[in-house]
Amino acid sequence: MATVPLVSDAAASPEVAAVFADIRETRGTEHINNFWRALAAADPALLAATWARLKAVMVEQREGGLDPLTKELVYLAVSMANGCDYCIHSHTAAARAKGASAAQLADLYAVLAMAVQTNALVTALGVPVDPGFQAEAD
Amino acid sequence: MATVPLVSDAAASPEVAAVFADIRETRGTEHINNFWRALAAADPALLAATWARLKAVMVEQREGGLDPLTKELVYLAVSMANGCDYCIHSHTAAARAKGASAAQLADLYAVLAMAVQTNALVTALGVPVDPGFQAEAD
Amino acid sequence: MATVPLVSDAAASPEVAAVFADIRETRGTEHINNFWRALAAADPALLAATWARLKAVMVEQREGGLDPLTKELVYLAVSMANGCDYCIHSHTAAARAKGASAAQLADLYAVLAMAVQTNALVTALGVPVDPGFQAEAD
Amino acid sequence: MATVPLVSDAAASPEVAAVFADIRETRGTEHINNFWRALAAADPALLAATWARLKAVMVEQREGGLDPLTKELVYLAVSMANGCDYCIHSHTAAARAKGASAAQLADLYAVLAMAVQTNALVTALGVPVDPGFQAEAD
Amino acid sequence: MATVPLVSDAAASPEVAAVFADIRETRGTEHINNFWRALAAADPALLAATWARLKAVMVEQREGGLDPLTKELVYLAVSMANGCDYCIHSHTAAARAKGASAAQLADLYAVLAMAVQTNALVTALGVPVDPGFQAEAD
Amino acid sequence: MATVPLVSDAAASPEVAAVFADIRETRGTEHINNFWRALAAADPALLAATWARLKAVMVEQREGGLDPLTKELVYLAVSMANGCDYCIHSHTAAARAKGASAAQLADLYAVLAMAVQTNALVTALGVPVDPGFQAEAD
């Protein structure tokens, strides 16, 4: 249940239609996710800026950077930690579409469970940072 | 500033000493992170259970699962999303030790920034899940 | 799907009925939000205390303080950051009822997206506070 | 304690130096916040993209949009809800620099306290959204 | 709407079936929560490890430790703070099954509301820890 | 490092001094936590309202409600889940002052670790609520 209407193709302004067209061309699919349709209603300028940045980060490939599947798994892990249901569904689907196997997703769940547990314990105990961790940053 | 003392080697009970010894052998280093020393003070049984599980998830390798660096990056991303400073420092150091390059960490930061932004917008707009995302789960 | 029943007018105890009556009079509407009906079931004393405080903060006007719409936008932004779906729906409706325009809400979404992104990067990088920021607090 | 070095003016690449110069010109101050210096070390491309977007959202003014102080208060409220200490310090300082009075900040604290409390109770009770809230979105 | 299928008894592998059998015997009920059925699909090894640990923490009793109802209330409070709807529903039901009265749950809601409010204000104000709090940890 | 000064006894207005006096009398100690001193600077009205409510919830005893130590443990668990360092320190100290044993705190840490782990997995898997959980609420 959205707080804004979802913008249909018919109702799209030229600015929105241009973004929708680029999403379709970049992804090679006719489907425009509800997220983009809601964002189009909320703020067309924010839609354009968000899509441009997402394309640069998730579609384009940086030399020596992470491969597309790893980036998708990181995106999914962050969405899980933030408890964003829609995002978990869309990025689980995206990870599978990019080739994530059941064993890889099983590892993702196992690492998530491990990380939140140690995150919480570290915070609960107020553990001071080991001096050695810092040295590597300088 | 911890809410419990950090258990030194000299003060370790046999149960705690056995865990410390296994950490040292598994990791090939004499250094025991402050996290384990604080957890030893809080609850030796929780120390043993947490280390055993962390070893199974992060050290052992599942057939067809994620490689050690990818698991480390997911762990780090979750720690960042949860805002755990100690964890961010320790797992940034661990990612570098496992070979994460500056370009790979740059991608991690870029994906994190992208994910939290779209997570927040999806939530703010109450976007309903696209029916197609669900089909792939069944 | 609530974990408690929603208290109807007919089922309201005198203590609850008095709060419902004050909500109706203060807001000039017969509608009592589900939140108040659920809170009435959970703890009538908490209902009374929460309504009294909400009225003092959101309805009454402090000299030199924030105007009602700005307070509503801050309330909404916090609800978005906390990922509370019900709260996002009720306070988006309230912001519109208090005169928030589409352009103002568009700015709210844009600032939210910006803030969560820089919040996450600051945390991920462990950025130390600039000395100058502190000076102004003293 | 940062996980990356803070890039000094002397160490800035031409790409980073150009961003630093634009920050200085836009803000009319010589001071470059530690956030930008850390981001420059983490990923110069992310620095450029983040600054460009922050300038568009926070410095430029949308017709009929929120005034600069209200945007700053929303930014601050989100940072508080996310528990980002650095961000709270920098945006409290920024809010004061943009004219926020003590009474206005007092209202911000009061609304924050109110919002997190009702957010938590709504979530704890699983309150279903009132049908009327949705009507306004369509 | 799950991102994985829920594993039925008929579809359970021997590894999964053994966990399901132990859940049934330990809890004295035929019902297996959807959580365990989803986890069985995601990662049978994670299912086994999570159930084993949950049984050790929540079912077994440590000498001098917390009683079962108090542990359940802590579990519920954490789930509320984390905004996990499913967990709130399952652990509210579990708390009632373990004897939590309406007055005890009312106190839980009241303490939750108090805690999140002071947590947020402390964070918003950047309050430094009183030296005395630390002394007790050493 | 606070964003507001800490109000000393000498600098306290009559309104603030009255709250400080009631804190001292209620708690039987001369020490006023930094939280109250910071809140006094931020908003004396919020200080008075927060203290009045905290006294009602945490000091006064509801018939059939939770005992003081259990309320303190719930407060602490919520503070841990919210990652509020100051609150963790102050409420760990308070729990010890109210008689929490090392074994009880060990159980608290163990339950926290369990809860955040299952919270995260439930969210990651999008587990639907079992119909039976709801029945008990009606």
Automatic annotation (TrEMBL), chains A, B, C, D, E, F:
This is Carboxymuconolactone decarboxylase family protein. It comes from Paralimibaculum aggregatum. It comes from the Bacteria. InterPro entries: AhpD-like, AhpD_core, CMD-like. Residues 47-127 form the Carboxymuconolactone decarboxylase-like domain. PANTHER family: CARBOXYMUCONOLACTONE DECARBOXYLASE-LIKE DOMAIN-CONTAINING PROTEIN, SI:CH211-175M2.5. Pfam families: CMD. Gene3D superfamilies: AhpD-like.
